[in-house]
Amino acid sequence: MTTIVLEARDLTYAYPGGVAALSNLDLAVAKGRRLAILGPNGAGKTTLLLHLNGTLRPTSGHVLLEGRQTGYGRAALSAWRRQVGLVLQDADDQLFAASVAEDVSFGPLNLGLDDATARIRVEDALAALDLTDLGERPTHMLSFGQKKRVALAGAVAMAPDILLLDEPTAGLDHLGTRHLLAVLERLNQGGTTLVFSTHDVDLAYAFADDVALFDNGRVLAQGPAPDILADSNLLAKAQLRAPFLLEMGLKTKSLGLLGANAPLPRRPQDMLALLDRIAAQMDSGTVRPG
Questions:
Q1: In what order do the strands lie in the sheet containing 19-30?
Q2: CATH for 4-241, among 1.10.510.10, 3.40.50.300, 3.40.50.720, 2.50.20.10?
Q3: 21-30 tens-digit pLDDT
Q4: Buried b (16+ CB within 10 A) or exposed e, 75-91
Q5: Where are the domains of the chain?
Q6: What predicted TM-score, i.e. pTM, was given to this entire model?
């Protein structure tokens, strides 16, 4: 049975000057799942994440945490952010301490943890992000990718139940992206619910369990990633294309090279394995080319 742990109901928000950002938006985050908020740049994805951890307060509508309407007083916001962490797209917006270890320790110490417990949290977070050797390095001397990992380590050290990430792979090279996604996968397997914004349909298809298709401040549709991303009409409304691997998988089914009920490959290694099987079948005469 699906448990909804974070929910937006009828959220509307306008920036100063009347610039509309969210319009009667509904969204549900299921416990233990990976949800991609997928849409073009400027669709309002970041604004939504800032509402989901209480940074912004809606003009109308509500955010519910574990079925209860959230509050915006000091104590309520503190409790909310202990459960729902946020990693911004630009790490420079989150890093402010003199060294990596000091920056990562800020959150745990402000939770009121004793020094020993906070130190363990920090050490574990640095190790998880492969940052142990950089603990004493000044944050201004980090590379772009290192800064993103430190910002994530700061959120991980807070041990949130839900982690929100704004365009987590933006600006990272291939190796940096692989490393970051591996860390997020381990966090998710450990029970952390993940919500991330992206305009990358291939990333959403490969990594997310669920997708909320987003455009002009509204969720057009939400559901399992393969179902939503196979709907060409919905993708067109959101000004997005179909994921390449999804198109490849559907093509193999249409050619009879993949069983009608077989799961579609969602990662490059899955597609390569499928092509190897097809090649082996062709060599054995089970499948004829052309």
A1: 19-30, 4-15, 60-65, 68-69
A2: 3.40.50.300
A3: 999 999 999 9
A4: eebeebbebbbbbbbeb
A5: 4-241, 243-290
A6: 0.90
